[in-house]
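hey can u check if this looks right to u? its 646 residues, i copy pasted from the old doc so theres a chance i mangled smth
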Amino acid sequence: MLGRLVLGVALILAASLPTVVVDAQTPGPQSLPMPPAIPAPQDVAYPGTIKLDVNATDLDRRIINMRETIPVRGPGRMTLLYPEWLPGNHAPRGQIEKLAGLVVKAGGQRIAWTRDVVDVYAFHVDVPAGVSALELEFQFLSAVESAQGRVVITQDMMNLQWNSLVLYPAGYFARQIPVEVSMTLPEGWKFGTALETASSNGAQTTFKTTSLETLVDSPLFAGQHFVKVDLTPNNPGPGNVSLNIVADRATLLPVKAEQLAVHREMVNQALKLYGSRHYERYNFLLALTDQMGGIGLEHLQSSENGTAPGYFSEWDKNADGRDLLPHEYTHSWNGKFRRPADLWTPNFNVPMRDSLLWVYEGQTQYWGVVLAARSGLITKQQALDSIAIQAATYDVRVGRAWKPLQDTTNDPITASRRPLPWRSWQRSEDYYSEGQLVWLDVDTLIRELSGGRKSLDDFAKAFFGINDGSTVSVTYTFDDVVSTLNDVQRYDWAAFLRARLNDTDKPAPLDGVTRGGYKLVYTDTPTDFYKSVETNRKNTDLTYSLGMTVARDGKLSAVQWDGLAYKKGLTIGAQLVAVNGLAFDADRLKEAVKDAQKMPQPIEMIVRNGDRFSTISFDYRGGLRYPRLVREGKTAARLDDILAAR
């Protein structure tokens, strides 16, 4: 009876609905054909040298003006490209929105350009007959505040990235396009770059002609407070390494003898590790600033870094940032000389594939800390404390339950380093620091299997140390990594690595810590290194207790997915107003967590979220919890050996 009733209702409803008639003679919309493809890059020489004139003297408006001359073969359609896929960014981050005022002329007469309707980084120009060169004028409108992007010009310094200042012809490998650059800086400014100077005349400098590939890989730092420090004083010729420092003010520039010594030793330790070099001269470019936007970008023959203004003047406060330069220096070998085959591209508008960033960045992250310790930039204890923080991070990184480490190599493209509401669940470029732990695992396993005769040092020399003196990149694949590991120590490295890259919902990769002779523990007192990290980040990190991190103003800057704060409904941006009846203060918050261990009442907080206020009780008795590594006596102290100077 019920079935008949349901059927009857269905028939009534069907009768009441309009009849849809499909007319085979009138199909729905169809897509238009795509426009002609942009000419693919060919490995042939470009006919002529591009001349690029850059005027970077407009400090007040932070506008960079360009004039560019591009030789052409003859009449016909020509496509000009603005760099989109930027080396070291691992993503399409070319700032096309900041290119403005583009005017194209031929023989002094203005001619029209059209932007490609699919690829907005491509501009088409119909070259008239009898024209031998195009003359371009345009501006790069750099950010005047951080909301518009990274600030690259202040009244005291600037960071010129040539990829933001050039258009180039489609159809050629970047290494086949010669470019001659002339640059005008504010009067009295000095600069550092890996480019070689051809001539200088007051504020104007002309650089030797180089390829577009090398140009983009050779950024420039300039400023009125600038000093160049030689890190290899006994080697002034090929292979020389220097530290080029630009600062917000002159008082930040002095480098003490002991600080200089550890930076020189860092170079020495790296050369011992890799047994080769792949640069003519290497220039560390270091900005000490809180005015210009921060940066950490690698290049074959230079670094490009911004760090705390007090890097030298407040040396003891910045230990947590002193693995920066060894990290970037390592990239000269790992990432720039040896480069993943699917990441290497012939020009700056061919998409990159990031599948091997756990080698490119993960192993570099590993060597950054190791070389910092071996050189004395940080102490062994500081290195151990740094590793403890990373181990603890992935000990509770709940996103590992669903998202494999391999998939985080897509994060530069999918997330573009935008702020994330739930990083512990979404994950974000974990190939850096979880990759670091994987390579510690590899290193200690090689040492264990070989009885201490071999280590990841041997891999570094065999893999990155080839072709000493060459600046020509050599690409690699997953199989190349596995093959070299097997040359060092036989093992099923393919299965080992794939498990750590692709498995989910497994324990964090902490075997390298335990096999290194240590174990991760949590205590109620932070290490000095942990306190330094909190101070420099201006927060109170209670990830391992209440499951949240609190900024200096009381706003939550991170909430651990499925942690205690999460279960109370808290999220990033909520603001702690009061703790146990008193106005919020970081020390009061920590005291409340400690006192709750012996008090019967829970921790009470008044929280503001938007326009709403609420009182939240935390019935938590676990006290403060901070990570550290402690020596496990049953296992050889392999980690101590790894961090010891060579």
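The first helix runs from residue 2 to 16.
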